[in-house]
Write a structure and sequence with these properties.
Elements lengths: L15 H7 L3 E3 L3 H9 L4 E3 L9 H11 L4 E2 L7 H13 L1 H12 L6 H23 L9 E3 L6 E3 L1
Parallel strand pairs: 1-2, 2-3
Antiparallel strand pairs: 4-5
């Protein structure tokens, strides 16, 4: 049976936001930025980790999402074209699977992550500054190491 679905294949797309908003499902690499965008938009995804990525991090990203039911992971070196096409069709034609993938990948999104990171960094800087101010000797020299949080984060002076 013929499927009446439209697809777009591009090596690079500057208007990625518009393309993602129009997508039913996405085939993507598994880098952190790509995953963050897919999670923010709750897009059902088939992830293909880049095998040459440093420390194989994309493989581990894809496996983490696939293991939690948030994406389908495919190994480009082990899948044949027919099986790849079937994997795509399975996601595109199964609304229950798409909804499940969408819901699960959405749980990976942390809307205020940048704010949380910035806030924590500022807290560490302030704690370090206070530690240096209160422990500096007459010469103004700071100690070589100072614990700045309950998590045993150490800052080297």
């Amino acid at each position: 049976a013929k499927l009446r679905c439209r697809s777009v294949l591009r090596p690079f797309l500057a208007e990625i936001d518009a393309a993602l908003m129009a997508a039913t499902a996405v085939v993507s690499r598994a880098g952190a930025s790509s995953i963050a965008e897919l999670a923010a938009m709750r897009l059902p995804s088939l992830l293909i980790p880049l095998p040459t990525a440093q420390d194989n991090h994309q493989f581990f990203n894809a496996q983490a999402l696939a293991g939690s039911g948030a994406a389908v992971a495919v190994d480009q070196d082990r899948i044949h074209a027919a099986d790849f096409a079937l994997a795509i069709l399975r996601v595109v034609t199964n609304p229950v699977l798409r909804q499940s993938l969408s819901s699960q990948i959405g749980s990976w999104h942390v809307a205020d992550s940048a704010e949380r990171i910035a806030t924590r960094m500022l807290q560490l800087v302030e704690a370090h500054r206070r530690g240096l101010d209160s422990t500096a000797g007459a010469s103004g020299d700071a100690p070589a190491r100072r614990t700045v949080s309950k998590k045993r984060t150490e800052v080297t002076a």
